[in-house]
Structure formats: structure tokens, C-alpha cells
Amino acid sequence: MGWMKDETGLDRNAANYVPLSPLSFLRRAVQVFPGHEAVVYGPHRKTYAEYADRVTRLASALVKLGVKPGEVVATLLPNIPAQAEAHFGVPACGAVLNTINTRLEADTVAYILDHGEARVLLCDPQFLPMAAEAIERMEGAAPIVIEVADDHAGVHAHGHYMDYEALLETGDPDFEWIMPEDEWESIALNYTSGTTGRPKGVVYHHRGAYLNAMGQVISWRMTLYPKYLTIVPLFHCNGWCHTWMMPLVGGTLICCRDIAAKPIFDAIADEGATHFGGAPIVLNALINAPEAERRTFDHVVEVFTAGAPPAPATLAKIEPMGFNVTHVYGLTETYGPATECTWQGEWDGLLGDDRAAVKSRQGVAMPFMEPVQLWDDHNNPVPMDGKTQGEIVFRGNGVMKGYLKNPTATAEAFAGGYYHSGDIAVQHPNTYLQISDRAKDIIISGGENISSVEVEGVLMGHPDVLLCAVVAKPDDKWGEVPCAFVELKDGHDTDEAALIAYARERLAGFKTPKHVVFQELPKTSTGKIQKFQLRGIAKEL
């Protein structure tokens, strides 16, 4: 191998090195699958040629609005075609896409618009009142608002702002996409649920989005022409990168605005949906759907489920209905799913609880990640014995660039050369992970992350509350819901309904406690509240 020491003239050049970007998937799809259906939503049916044309016009129109490379374009949209188009059109003008969670309250949205310095906001009419309130609360320059009407769902434009279709009309169909010169350039900005205070802005690069999309094709055992149903909100880790993945395999993106059993069954039966991702609550909705909403279909639907592991009872009921469920796990900081419970042939004979026990594991690293490790408090790997707990740490191309304008938090997250998830797990001798606790006390309700600290902060503002702690209470429908334990001040009195109403005025609906228990809180000798005891009580409620 001695001659390899002399690499004179073997430098990267325009012929042999192109920065990786998921934009290339759509560019290729226009050539390979121009007449194939790319995006479907009721009467909206666009081929790859038409999809790319709309993306091109969007990119051009944004440039005409004054958006410059590296600036942020935000969205407040459900899973409708415009949200998919933004995934390509925003980076195609060199900008960074910030898909905002439509379930947040105005105060948090104002913070996100300020912190990301969004230049333009694409907004669904349903969320315009909340967006308007958020913009009023902003400290910096307000974004240009574009209204994205959804006439198919009966959500019509208010008429106060420029309409999305009118915006596309201003775009040049011959606009040259601005491809990244460096694959490390940012493609997306996603705000994660703040465990303490404000949410953090997680930044993705083109390279990570490309490799994540490429790797999940393998994880999901996909071949050409899948029909992907958008259940995971495209504001959650960019829909786990699946919208970027579809053109790679000539897939059809089936948009779904309202996540409920009937539209899901209809999409499977009428559109032939083959794949979707979603929290266990989605599986429960299908299992518990009334007969009138169910449809028959003759193909197996592949499901990625994340959040709390699916319960044995759920799996036992959903799989015979025609669904093959794979448990995946990840975080906003890992572009969505980063591990998968890859099925092994030796498990084929397992039934019932034994099968569910294996399927509920978080599994092994996806192809774009290095093998996942569990570390102790001193950054040393713990034994893979299925008993010793450690913190899950990640390394690989599917890890974020870092937190926007927060070098301290970024350095902490990457201590020791791995991303620290804050999630506690055990690792089995076959290397498969199984989460045992969430170190950050995050509550996962219907796939949404809720910071217990944020909810506690609100309740502590009530004049009668002395102390409170919020923990996850297991819930058949939502997976988990927030449950508050409250100590009242001496001589003060209030009730559960009043505290829930108080929280509801100050928090998004999904963050509001569903139960309030009045009792003295268990504490350590140093006065720290022992949440593990409260979790035990919440379980028994």
C-alpha cells in the first residue's frame, strides 16, 4: 500500500465531489419519475414535474420577497402540500426552514420568531389569530405573512395577507435553485421543548438530512414507489425527514390534515398508503375506531412508532389488522428517529407478551449513526447486561449542528465527543437499547414533548400554591398525560378544576395537567422533590 502515500493530484474537484443535499433527490425525481404522482391531498394531485415546478416558483418568490441565503423562513401549517413544498422550496432559495409547532401558545411562537429572526411566515388560516397575537408580542422585526388557504378542508383565506397560490404566481419557473456550496450549511431550524425555560433552536445541515433520508429507506425496507401517509407532523423534526426521502424512491406523499382513524383508514383503502409514522396514540385510535370508520385493505402497512413503546395489548390488536409495527427512537437533536428495533429472524416464533417485549425496545442505531452507547456519570460505557442503567449517547451524521445562539448548551450536549440525550436506558447483550426513564422529566403526550418544569412554573404562579411537581401519568389514549401534585399555602384553598382552568389560560392545551392531587410532596434530606415516588402514585390513580 506504499504508493497510497503519494496522493498528488487526487484532490476533490467539481467532477468527483458534490455537497450532499436532499434537494438533489427532487432534482433527480423530476428526470426519473416526471409523470409519477408525488403529492396527493384530496383534489390536489401533483406529479413530480408539477411538484418541482411549484417548489421552484416558491424559491423564486421568496427571493423576490427579499429572503437571502442563510435567513429563516417559518411555517405554521398542518400536513398539507404547501408544508411539503416548503421543505424543498425554502432551502432551494438558500434559506433555512423553521417549521413551528402549531399547538404552541402565542408567547412561545413570538419567542421562536424573534430568536430565529424569521423573514417570512407561511400560515394556515386556522392559526392566523394565534400568529397575529405572537407577532404583536415580538420584540424584533415582524415576518412577512403569507396565508396558505386550505379550501379542501373548508379553511378559507381571511384575505388580510397575500395568498400562497398568488405568491407562487410571482415565482419564476426557470429559477436556478441555490444549492449548498458546503453540505454543512443549515437546512432547517427546529425548536425543541424547553426543559428549563425557553425552547432551544436545533440546527440541521444538508448532509445530515440527506443521509438520514437515505438511511431510513434501508431501515424501513422500502423499495420504489411507496405511498407515505403524513401522520407525524411535518413540524416534528421535519416529519422525521420523510418528506425529503420520498423523491429518492419515487414515492407518493399523501397529506393528512386531521389525524383521526377515518382519514387514516380512507388513505390506506383509497390511496393505497403503505407506510406511516406516528405515536402509539395513533395505533390506539385505529384499534378503537367504530366499525363505520374502518376500511378493509389487502396489503401490510409498515408503521414506525415512537414516543412511549407500544403496549403489549396494543401490538396484539394492531398487527392482525394488517399493520407491521417497528419501534423507533430519537430526538429533535437527531433529526427524528436514530435507532430502530430491527426484527431478527430468530424472533419469528414469538407471540403475545414475548413478542411485544422484544418489539418495545428502542433497538440499534440506524445506518447513518455510529453504534449507540450508554454512559455512566463519568462518560464511561456501562455493561450490556440488560440491567445496568446509563445515559444514551449518540454520534454520527444524524446529529444536529448544535443549538442556535447557545454555545454553552451546545458544548454541554456534546461533552466527550457524543451527543447526550438525557434519556436513561439499559442495553441488552444483543446491543438493543431499552429506555427505562427520561432523565429530563419530559412527558410525552400523543407524541408531543411536554416539559414538566414549564408546567410547574405556571402552577407555581397561582396565589394558593406553595409547591408543586408535575409527572407523567400513564394514559391509554395519549400514552402519558401531565399529572400535578400540589402543596397549598397554609390557610389557602382551591380545587382541581380551578387549577386546571388557571393552567389552561397560560399553557397550550396539551401541556395542561389532566389531574391535580393535593398532598405533601415527598422530599429528600436536601429538600429535592422525589418525583419517582410521585410517578408511582400517578400510575395507581
Describe the structure.
This is AMP-binding protein. The protein is globular, with a radius of gyration of 24 Å. Helix 2 packs across helix 3, helix 4 packs across helix 5 and helix 12 (312-318) crosses helix 13. The chain has a nine-stranded mixed sheet with strand order 2-1-11-10-12-13-14-15-16. A five-stranded parallel sheet has the order 4-3-5-6-7, with helices on both faces. The protein has a four-stranded antiparallel sheet with strand order 17-18-20-21, with no helix packed on it. With 541 residues, the protein is an alpha/beta fold. Among the domains are: 17-254, ANL, N-terminal domain (Rossmann fold, 3-Layer(aba) Sandwich); 445-540, ANL, C-terminal domain (GMP Synthetase, Chain A, domain 3, 2-Layer Sandwich). The longest helix is centred in the N-terminal third of the chain and has 17 residues, at 48-64. Helix content is 29%, strand content 24%. Strand 12, helix 11 and strand 13 (301-305) form a beta-alpha-beta unit.
Overall geometry comes to: globular
Strand order of the largest sheet: 2-1-11-10-12-13-14-15-16
Number of helical regions: 17
Helix content: 25-40%
Corresponding CATH superfamily of the domain at 17-254: ANL, N-terminal domain
Task: Indicate the low-confidence ranges by residue numbers.
Answer: none
Query: What's the CATH architecture of the domain at 17-254?
Result: 3-Layer(aba) Sandwich
